[in-house]
Amino acid sequence: MIWALLGVPMAAGAAAFYVRPDGPRRLLLLAAALAHAVLTAAAWLSPSQPALWGYLAMDAAGRLFLSVTSFLFLAAAAYAVGFLRSAGRAKEEEEAEGFLFDNAPEAVFTGCLLLFLGTMTMAALSQHFGLLWVAVEATTLASAPLIHFHRQRRSLEATWKYLLICSVGIALALLGNFFLAVAAREHQDLLMTGPQLIARASQLDRTWLKAAFLLFLVGYGTKMGLAPLHTWLPDAHSEAPCVVSALLSGALLNCAFLALMRVNAVLAAAGLADFSGGLLRSFGLLSMAVAAAFVIGQADFKRMLAYSSVEHMGVLAFGSGLGTGAGAAMLHAVNHSLAKAMLFLTAGNILAAGRTKSVGEVRGLLRALPLSGALWLIGFLAISGSPPFGPFVSELWILKGALDGRQWASASLYVALLAVVFVGMATVVLKMSHGEPSDKFKTSAAEEDPWRLLPPVGLAAAVLALGLWVPRPLLEAVRDAAIVLGAR
């Protein structure tokens, strides 16, 4: 099962580079995404055996995040069919400066998209900290060409910024691996897998463990988008095609979060949960504060969504640092992924119709694009934690964890920052949705592509359903994942 989950996207990605006709290549993308989703669903029904001496295994946390990744990729693959049909091969005009540019070959885009799924799958299944580091770095290399799909100056700048900053961060995470090995230097029989380190955590050197966690927090926190390490994220999410932005925000950030939480589990087992939890809460609130400052008055609606991702990564870190709120953080990771992917895909429809990311040039979405405009409003309500959507439930659960832990000041700041972000996003979204349609929008409602509407509609239905009712299997899954990742 594990080898199939890794092999399907990797083999399909390699084949996509050599399939010349567009139709069969797009069919290959859909088939691989569907096969991966079926294999992931089967993993819930029958447990898979560890592979590669236990370096690869599917525990509760890996299964949860793999399921989110697979579901989002299936939606993104369906959306990509409509996106690639409209992207075409003709030169396009750059919005800001008027230069002509052409997109990267579709074969490269499709191949890298499938390889991206394969590397994220490896990150979810990796139990060995060295292999986990390789997987997280591989996600960077696989996704960089996707960010540079629109081969223009701003996308090139965003790609290099992404590679440079994330590579520095991942280098620090590698140093964290070395420190972790030093912490276990008295136990040469350890394989540096999570379960083995957790089982013998009390015998590890506590000073080196603390130093290792600091490096992992900075390293994987950079890839996760925690402030002040987030500076690559707004550019990359803004300049990448919206289907790629949906995966970057909804799936890639989860990989870094999962890696950081696996280290946190070792510290919790060693009795250092207060140390790691305090750092996570601090970075979480800082990320929310930075995002709140940049969301207010944001002039680019894709950058607004990017800063919203910084905010929600802060929410995840804050909830995980509470210990008792770790289960809520796992549920919030699911809710954020669904809502944010839906918003980015909807942003793609707006961008395709108006050819602009400028908030000032977008008006009257509900009239110009009724379905996409409605999805834009629904997505805003969902991502801002309004009832009856899923993020409201998980954010409220995190607040309860803070209050149960008597974190009165942190809880108050948490609520205040959520309110500021709500007001900032509402100002942008409501201006875009109402009024007379802008001159930019010449597309009628009848021309909205079903391939680009059905995926965000499905994601919106899922995030609404999780706000009305959290199924018991999912509730047990997020609690099991929280236990695996060091909840106390």
Descriptive account of the structure:
By secondary structure, the chain is mostly helical. It is built from 19 helices and two strands. Helix 2 (22-45) runs parallel beside helix 4. The longest helix has 31 residues, at 153-183.
Blueprint (SSEs and pairs):
Elements (H helix, E strand, L loop, with lengths): L1 H15 L5 H24 L14 H28 L4 E2 L6 E2 L4 H20 L3 H19 L5 H31 L10 H6 L6 H19 L7 H8 L2 H28 L3 H23 L5 H21 L4 H29 L10 H4 L1 H14 L6 H15 L3 H26 L16 H19 L3 H13 L4
Antiparallel strand pairs: 1-2
Quick synopsis:
The chain has 19 helices and 2 strands. The protein has 488 residues and is an all-alpha fold. The protein is globular and about 70 Å long.
| Individual helix count | 19
Which residue ranges are poorly predicted, with pLDDT under 50 across at least 5 consecutive positions? Answer: none
Radius of gyration: 21 Å
What number is the mean pLDDT? 91
Distance from N terminus to C terminus (CA atoms, Å) equals 31 Å
Order of helices and strands: HHHEEHHHHHHHHHHHHHHHH
**Shape, per Cα inertia axes:** globular
**How many strands?**
2
How would you write the strand order of the largest sheet?
A: 1-2
Could you say which structural class the secondary elements and strand pairing correspond to? mainly alpha
What descriptors fit this protein?
single chain; 488 residues; mainly alpha; two-stranded antiparallel ribbon; 2 strands
